[in-house]
Prior knowledge:
Layout: H1 3-14, E1 19-20, H2 21-28, H3 32-44, E2 48-51, E3 54-57, H4 59-66, H5 83-95, E4 102-105, H6 110-118, E5 124-127, H7 130-136, E6 143-146, E7 150-152, E8 157-159, H8 161-167, E9 172-177, E10 181-183, E11 186-189, H9 195-203, E12 205-211, E13 223-227, E14 233-236, H10 242-250, E15 254-257
Parallel strand pairs: 4-5, 4-9, 5-6, 9-12, 12-14, 14-15
Antiparallel strand pairs: 1-3, 2-3, 7-8, 10-11, 11-13
Helix pairs in contact: 1-4, 2-3, 5-6, 6-7
Amino acid sequence: MFLAQRHERILAALAGGGQSVVQLAEALGVSESTIRRDLDILAKGGRLERLYGGAMLTQGSRANITDSGSVEDPFTSDTRGDLELRRKMAAEAAQLVSDGDVVVLDIGSTTQLVARELRGRPVTIITSNLAVLDEVRDDDVVEVVLLGGVLRRNQQSLVGPLAEQVIGQLSADMMFLSCTGVRNGHVLDNMAVEAPIKQALIAASQRIVLLASELKFPGSGALRLCSLDEVDVLITTAGTPHDELAHRRETGRKVIVA
């Protein structure tokens, strides 16, 4: 686990209240000495307050982790220039789902639109994306499994060790995966606090469908979610570099250009 990723997971775990070194070590699967070093680094940076045997967030860090304050809906706003690209990908994604499927809809912007396409379908949706929940909360046909965790308001998502523990008991037919970039054969993300959730959901799913418009090649991000070879289906848009699509097809993997 990357140092920055571990630090974000520590902060996410502390968002619900103070925790001991022992609790944090168990939640992250590292030694207590590693946690103590991490807490010292984060305390020096003013992101948490050290307590006897543990730590708690400072008020400023709590706001950063939970994204408190005014909320703008970044996923459905018509001001986003890629809205039409995401709508086209969502329509293609929904066609891959069969009635009765158990489907993971990832944290991200396009998956909300996929949920909209699945309304009225007899499927089960697993998600930690509150924008997805908003789309299907009143649908009597769709079954919804909402993962618990720490609320990130501006990102409309639930994150943290609690969500990861629940995912370990789940199994899904298909995951629709979002990312911030695709580069050098890897699917990337730039949010350390979200990456463990995405990775756990990948492991719990039989098929991975990557939703990555032309804007994600190369996009951004330094955290590897998975290799591109692990993706069963790539749904993208017409502006994606031809060599990227050609390589995928040559290796026998499915590409859908929305």
